[in-house]
Design brief:
114 residues; mainly beta; seven-stranded mixed sheet; globular; four-stranded antiparallel sheet
């Protein structure tokens, strides 16, 4: 059974940091590129970051470049999203995704406010 389980969300003040984790099971994680998406209230889901199966290649949405870092540990079957210098506009539910088979996690809420 395929599972993607996100964790690490929560509330943080502007300028703060959070690290999201997504633990995968049920498929050959090390062979899959992975992505993080987010969806804010009333908005469409948007792609935040992408990482290749090896971790050698990453891509980011312009809105998060230089603030967010995607990484992965294939031995732990986990993908991460380090989020720094958080802004209120980063508030959203963050989802982990394996695009090849369109696997999705349940999401984790990130709220940035003072």
């Amino acid at each position: 059974q395929v599972q993607l389980v996100e964790s690490g969300g929560g509330w943080v003040q502007p300028g703060g940091s959070l690290r999201l984790s997504c633990a995968a099971s049920g498929f050959p994680f090390s062979l899959y590129a992975m992505r993080w998406y987010r969806q804010a209230p009333g908005k469409e889901r948007e792609l935040v970051a992408h990482i290749s199966w090896s971790g050698d290649n990453t891509n980011y949405a312009d809105s998060v470049k230089s603030r967010f870092t995607i990484s992965r540990d294939n031995t732990k079957k986990t993908v991460y999203l380090q989020m720094n210098s958080l802004k209120p506009e980063d508030t959203a539910v963050y989802y982990c995704n394996a695009p090849a088979n369109d696997y999705w996690g349940q999401g984790t809420q990130v709220t940035v406010s003072s």
